[in-house]
Amino acid sequence: MNGRTYEEVAVGEELPPLPIPLTRTLIVATAIASRDYQDVHHDPGLAVERGSKDIFMNILTTNGLVDRYVTEWAGPAAVVKAIRIRLGVPNYPGDTMTLSGTVTAKHDEDRRVEIAVRGENGLGAHVTGTVAVRLPAKGAI
Amino acid sequence: MTAYEDFAGREIVPPREGPDPVNVPMIRHWAEAMGDRNPVYLHDDAARATGRPGIVAPASMTQAWTMRGYAPAPGTGGTGAEELNALLEKDGFTSVVATDSEFEFHRELVVGDRVSVREVVESISPEKSTALGVGRFVTTVRTYTDQDGEVVAVQRWRLLRFRPENQAPKALRPRPAINRDNAFWFEAAREHRLVIQRCAGCGTLRHPPGPCCPHCGSFEWDTAEASGRGQVYSFVVAHHPRHPAFEYPLIVAVVELDEGTRLITNLVGVEPGEVEIGMPVVLDWLDADPDLSLPVFRPQEND
Question: Residue limits of the MaoC-like domain (chain A) (predicted)?
Answer without folding.
Answer: 16-117
